[in-house]
Amino acid sequence: MNSNTKFNILRTLLSVGIALLISFILILLTSHEPVKAVVKLLTGPLESTRRFGNVIEAMIPLIFTGVGVSIMFSANQINLAGEGSFHIGGLVATVIALNTTLPAGISPIVCILLAGIAGSLVTAIPAVLKIKTESDILVSSLMMNYLILYFSNYILSYFIKDPSAGSVVSYAVPEMTQFSTIFAGTRIHIGLFIAIVVALLGYVFLYKTKLGYELRVTGENQDFARYSGINVLKITLISSLLGGFVIGLGGGVEILGMYSRFSWTSLLGYGWDAIIITTLAKKNPLYVPFAAFFLAYLRTGASIMSRSTDVATEIVIITQGLIILLVVAEQFLSKYKHKMIAKEAKATLGNVKEVE
């Protein structure tokens, strides 16, 4: 592990620690029972199997969106259409499940793969607009989310809505298409294993393949990548397609694993959560499951805390904001980073002299 990696891990851990400390101070100042509130926040998810199951259930979609955004951001493509990709992934998985009669083992696979393809198309559109018209991908990708939301609401209301239900929801997805749970007393489903595999494959792609290397080089310096013979436009499109596919896959997995009907009439926020995950994981898919677990644990603890004490869940939003501010602050611990690099360089030079 080189000094830069060590420093990034250290800075992330310190950022989390400082943010939690500030949050604890705020709880102390605003709550009539601060000790109980902090204990519930930190240990609440461990009090029962069901509560810890809530953490894992919340972690699964965060892994998919985190890996997808990490791939796009590694190529310096600030494509924010992941929210729409996740949403359309859930819709497509539902529509396919309702309108096909495939064997039990094949049906969910087909549903989530088509969900991934739909998700890739959503993120590809802003990328193509950037390539063809030099439009701002930030703006176009943001607008895609709302196009997808209202398109999905239209499909839900006029094509797959169950008129016998008491709310705006789709017909029930066939049971043979839904993912089965893997732990009794929880709703943790086999999507957890799919998410872990996706994170591992994302890491292998970005750090062990030629295409992944080209993608990261393009993200670091487009001019250098272009002069090195890398097709920057191709990389732009590939990163958006792959990132959107992973996120759309996550939308399909979430529907088949946690829902029996499609009922998403508003954006769920997973695309924005993915930016937090990606920031914590330093765009490395291998670290995404850990970042996703931390965020899911924190939010589950906050929910338990708000139900048991007088502290609102909004304290977690403050914690998230502080973590992001500290992680992205380039000057935070910069002097210590220089000392680490100098120490490593000195040690390397000493080893070279010994060999000579």
Describe what you observe in this structure.
The protein has 356 residues and is mostly helical. It has a domain at 57-277. Helix content is 74%, strand content 0%. The longest helix has 28 residues, at 3-30. The model has no long low-confidence stretch (mean pLDDT 89).
- Per DSSP, the total helix count is 14
Structural class: mainly alpha
Low-confidence stretches: none
The description of the largest β-sheet is: none
What is the N-to-C order of secondary-structure elements (H for helix, E for strand)? HHHHHHHHHHHHHH
Query: What is the terminal-to-terminal distance?
Result: 25 Å
Q: What is the percent of helical residues?
A: over 70%
Radius of gyration over alpha carbons?
Answer: 22 Å
Count of DSSP strands: 0
Give average pLDDT, whole number: 89
Q: What amount of the residues lies in strands?
A: under 5%
CA-based shape: globular
Describe the SSE topology.
Layout: H1 3-30, H2 34-43, H3 49-74, H4 82-99, H5 107-133, H6 137-160, H7 191-208, H8 210-220, H9 222-227, H10 232-258, H11 270-281, H12 288-308, H13 314-328, H14 334-355
Structure, briefly:
The chain has 356 residues and is an all-alpha fold.
Which terms summarize this structure?
mainly alpha, 356 residues
